[in-house]
Amino acid sequence: MGRQPTLYSFADIHSDLAPNLRKYVLEAQNEAFKRHGVFRFAVSGGSLPKTLAKALLPPSNGTEEDKVDFSRWEIFYADERCVPLDHEDSNHKLVQEEWLNKIPKDMAQPKVYPISMDNLHDAQETADDYERKLVSVFAARDSVRVPLFDLILLGCGPDGHTCSLFPDHALLREHDAWILAITDSPKSPAKRITLSLPIVVAAAKIGFVATGGGKKDVLKMIFETEDGSKLPCGLVNEGGGEKVSWFCDKEATDGVSFPRRSSLI
Ligand SMILES: O=C1O[C@H](COP(=O)(O)O)[C@@H](O)[C@H](O)[C@H]1O
């Protein structure tokens, strides 16, 4: 079958998954630099930022391919919770604490576009405001009709949600808006902002990071069942096809019979 995602299963996060994730992200960076000189990257919250930091904070091995050039990175959020940006539930706060604040100060820093929470109580206005931000950043450069991220890194909740797109939610059928507001999230907090599914699957590359035994049942469902293919993560697999790569550890893929790979390196 064509258009299949790639499922990687690594023995260990620190010494195996993280260096492979680094290679994947830097390949996406280098391809993006060749395409248009900048790297537009959308990041999620949850368990991902910690693993991403393990991948990207170690020093370069000195080769051209392994060079991280943050001066040309533009970082966006795949989703955010409607809380102040310094609240403990904020994805931006998490990404800052786990990763961004640890980038050595003598290195060039990336340009970060948090989802502004100035209008905290109006989730729709907050979503519209971020969409306007994306229009100004992306359309100004490319005159594109949709923002084409070079890479989006996603998490996978134990219920199969990704970004703040939840199973069976009406927002999964939204095809026009780039950025959506959800006010009835089944996972707290109820008010959240998220990329829409069409924007996620339009990205040049889409990577999932799912680790730990708590993810194995949902991974089995996503990769092996019809119902799983309708979960938000399954819909990203279906829409993104071969552009999608899953970075998992052996605990998360335990019992999954979908063909697995163990290295990009
Ligand atoms: O609520 C969220 O959960 C998902 C999945 O998180 P994980 O801890 O199970 O990896 C995350 O990707 C998303 O950004 C976050 O808002």
The major sheet is characterized as: 7 strands, parallel
Strand content: 15-25%
From the alpha carbons, calculate the radius of gyration and give it in angstroms. 17 Å
Class of secondary structure makeup: alpha/beta
Q: Return the domain count.
A: 1
CATH topology value:
Rossmann fold
Can you give the helix content as a percent range? 25-40%
Cα separation of the termini: 24 Å
| Name of the top-level CATH class | Alpha Beta
Give, in order, the helices and strands: EHEHEEHEHEEEHEHHE
**Mean pLDDT metric:** 95
Please characterize this protein's 3D structure.
It is a single chain. The chain has 265 residues and is α/β, with parallel strands linked by helices. Helices cover 32% and strands 16% of the residues. It has helices at residues 13-36, 48-56, 91-98, 123-142, 197-202, 216-224, 232-240, and strands spanning 6-10, 39-43, 73-77, 79-81, 111-112, 151-154, 179-182, 192-195, 206-210, 244-249. The strands form 2 sheets. A 7-stranded parallel sheet has the order 1-10-9-6-2-3-5, sandwiched between helices. It has a 3-stranded antiparallel sheet with strand order 4-8-7. Strand 2, helix 2 (48-56) and strand 3 (73-77) form a beta-alpha-beta unit. The radius of gyration is 17 Å and the shape is globular. The two termini are 24 Å apart. The chain binds the ligand O=C1O[C@H](COP(=O)(O)O)[C@@H](O)[C@H](O)[C@H]1O. Ligand LXAUTJHC binds at residues 44-48, 79, 91, 154-155, 157, 162, 164, 187.
